[in-house]
Amino acid sequence: MGQSSPSATGRARRLTSAFVAAGVTLGVAGGLAALTTTSSNAATAAGCTAVYSTTWDSGSGFGAQVVITDNGPAWTNWTLSYSYAGNQTLQNGWNGTWNQSGKTVTVTNASYNGAVASGGTVTPAGNFGYSGTNAAPTSFSVNGMTCSGTTPPPTTPTTTPSTPSTTPTTTPSTTPSTTPSTTPSTTPSTTPSTTPSTGGGGGGHVANPFVGASQYLSPDYAGEVNAQAAADQSSNPALAASESKMAGYATAVWMDRIAAITGTGDSVHHGLQWHLDQALSQQKAGTPITFEVVIYDLPGRDCAALASNGEIPATAAGLTEYESQYIDPISAILADPKYSGIRIVAIVEPDSLPNAVTNQSKSACATATPFYESGVEYALNKLHAISNVYNYVDIAHSAWLGWSSNMGPAAQEFAKVARATTAGFASVDGFISNTANYTPTTEPFLPNSTLQVGGNPLDSAKFYQYNPYFDEYDYDQAMYSQLVGQGFSANIGMLIDTSRNGWGGPNRPTALNSSPTTVDTYVAANKVDQRSFRGDWCNQNGAGVGSRPTVQPYGASNHIIAYVWIKPPGESDGDYPSASHSHGDPHCDPAGTNTDGNGGTYSTGSIPGYDVPAGQWFAAEFQQEVENAYPAM
């Protein structure tokens, strides 16, 4: 199951060691550039190809994936088999049913990926523990066909501390722990790496547009922030001092309606060309500047919620309007040669394609889906044609697409749209998760979703409902593997919107509490996400600003290339129907409820006492987000 009501707004790399089988070239799965090695004695017409790589390695645990390709007739099902030479022990796995007997690992297809066309690929992946040497396996078979080759010279894996990927499985870990760990996972560093990625630092279309660049600071947002800090100065000078710091962080400019292109006519929200001119004035000689813009006005937009329903109908005429009156004017402005030195990061249609995956039971979404797909395809075509524009497609968040029944089909949906574009997969530079949402980047005291408490895995808790991804870091790592398995380049970058997912303040746990004996009480005592229901998304009470916009937060070789603030903190998610107005979304009503699809009912979690339209300044929300910032302001 997945979330039915995503966040509304209104307004990604580690070098790996790898193994080459069957004479294919090796692309390092987590690398910034392809590392190629070819076996000189491997067969050229094998029935299958297997490319093994590690996606992280801490010295005592690691992630591994195997990209298997069908080089013969189509498969209706598949079983992968290989063996380790050392003591590598399976912890969990996804994109198939994983098992281990002794040193031999087998993976059988999942229900959604058994059919593989001739030339098609699938990418099972898993997490393992080990001690000593972590040598790559040297032989693979798929459905009894051997795919063998030679191992290239080893690449020393990066061991930058990070939370290992907690990954989905249909059964608990084959080696579950029965004693909760007393030590939380290492919190990833938020210090930007000074090592540029391949092509970084300016000149042409680079791998990571944030490397070597300054970031645009919106005067519109700075004006809202400074006005609030001035208003709070006399009553709470300490808060005002923290609030004023917010103006120094980059936030995105939202093109959430056609009128936003030229400006709404007020003194708060200026048009796209005005902002780009401001970016030129902020740019320092010899240094690129990044400018983040949100493309957000599809026909039938926000089909599963009401807070940010769009202005364009989900019809053929609406699609024409979207293309000619929205995308075409935006692309014409962005293509102006005077802006060619700005690295324009386009966040493409939040909450659109995820709805095409999970919400087809809603008639509005079923109607809108073909227009979503065609609209995103058109937008990618127009924007990719501008060499200094970088396209990042929205992939929702872990609480929506984290279930295996959602993740695989979602990757297929993104690939379907990309393949339809003129440039194919090259039209997408990467993906972004958690746009305008509240899901934590990491859950430091819940690093293992299959940890056994009271005889049950943690992901069986009501809060997670067997969704194995508790945070955005793990979700993005797994989604990266899914996307590369569908054909996207290994160089795609993953972004995380950390604008409101900090969950600091007095309610944030500061140490592991290992005393609870049931999964529900254990999760409640240790999760930093303070929502009662992960599906809550509107103006969340108790939320705080998250990690500041950061380039390469996990180092140059990690798939996650930057933390960004796409949703400007302090701007409302939406209002709700009331006696004074009929528009809005009931999910934003502090007195309302949300349901989980399994009979559970929960509070919306919205800040009580307020009804602020989407995109408008919400003073009380901004104040609490600053007060609850983590790390603290």
UniProtKB/TrEMBL annotation:
Family named by the database record: Belongs to the glycosyl hydrolase family 6.
Active-site residues, as the UniProt record annotates them: D302, D351, D573
Ranges of Low complexity composition bias in the record: 157-197
Q: Does the keyword Signal apply?
A: yes
The answer to whether UniProt assigns keyword Disulfide bond to this entry is yes
Record keywords: Carbohydrate metabolism, Cellulose degradation, Disulfide bond, Glycosidase, Hydrolase, Polysaccharide degradation, Signal
Superkingdom: Bacteria
Query: What Enzyme Commission number does this protein have?
Result: 3.2.1.-
Per its UniProt entry, what is the enzyme's top EC class, as one word? hydrolase
UniProt-recorded name of the protein: Glucanase
Q: Give binding positions for substrate.
A: W254, D256, H397, W400, N437, W537, K567, E571
Q: Where is this region: Disordered?
A: 144-211, 572-606
Q: What Pfam families does this protein map onto?
A: CBM_2, Glyco_hydro_6
What Gene3D superfamilies does the record point to?
1, 4-beta cellobiohydrolase, 2.60.40.290
Which is an annotated GO molecular function term of this record?
A: hydrolase activity, hydrolyzing O-glycosyl compounds
Give residue ranges for domain CBM2.
41-150
Q: Which terms does the UniProt entry file under GO BP?
A: cellulose catabolic process
